[in-house]
Amino acid sequence: MTRSALVVAALCSMVLLSACQPKPEPIRFGEEVCAYCRMGISDPRFGAELLTRQGRVYKFDALECMVEFERSGALSAERIHSRWVVDFGQPGELIPVEEAEFVHAPNVHSPMGLNVYAVARGRYDADSLLPRGQRVSWEEVVQLVQRLWQSGPPRGSAP
Ligand SMILES: [Zn+2]
């Protein structure tokens, strides 16, 4: 193989790899149903999406449903490609969990009652119009969900 053929081959495999990267799908609010609690996904300030390495997309009405879906063992950890959450400050926009910060604000009523919203990193400090609350890490969000579901299934949730 010539040198340029090698470069072309390398470029092609890079293109193929990026084509295989699962990408989030926009949530169709008012039309789709939560993969965990089966309620309609209607509030564009909330919602979450889980992508598998095989390219499967699971959509949720609230990030607490995504956490509980994972905790229920529906998917093994190694099948998960990425987790996305709706940016409260940009309704309908999905951002990776790693690029989000989470705010526990009792006066913000999320669909399943956790009262946590996600927002792009840095936006909470920059935008004083966002509801005030306590900033929590993703790990703390997971703990809050565990506590919420332990005290009995929240309103409207399946099993
Ligand atoms: Zn749900």
Describe the protein's architecture and organization:
- It is a single chain.
- With about 160 residues, this protein is an alpha+beta fold.
- It contains four helices and seven strands; from the N terminus they run αββαββββαβα.
- The chain is globular and about 65 Å long.
- The strands form two sheets. Strands 2-1-3-4 form a four-stranded antiparallel sheet. Strands 6-5-7 form a three-stranded antiparallel sheet.
- The chain starts with a helix and ends in a 9-residue tail after the last helix.
- The longest helix is centred in the N-terminal third of the chain and has 18 residues.
- The chain has one domain.
- Bound molecules: zinc ion.
- Zinc ion binds next to loops.
Q: Which sequence of strands runs across the widest sheet?
A: 2-1-3-4
For the secondary structure, the number of strands is 7
> What is the count of structural domains?
1
Most strands sheet:
4 strands, antiparallel
Helical run tally = 4
Rg (C-alpha, Å) = 18 Å
Mean pLDDT: 89
Q: Give the overall form.
A: globular
What is the topological layout?
Layout: H1 3-20, E1 48-52, E2 57-60, H2 63-71, E3 80-86, E4 94-96, E5 100-104, E6 116-120, H3 123-126, E7 134-136, H4 138-150
The structure holds zinc ion.
Short summary:
By secondary structure, the protein is an alpha+beta fold.
Characteristic key phrases:
single chain, 159 residues, alpha+beta, four-stranded antiparallel β-sheet, three-stranded antiparallel β-sheet, 7 strands, globular, binds zinc ion
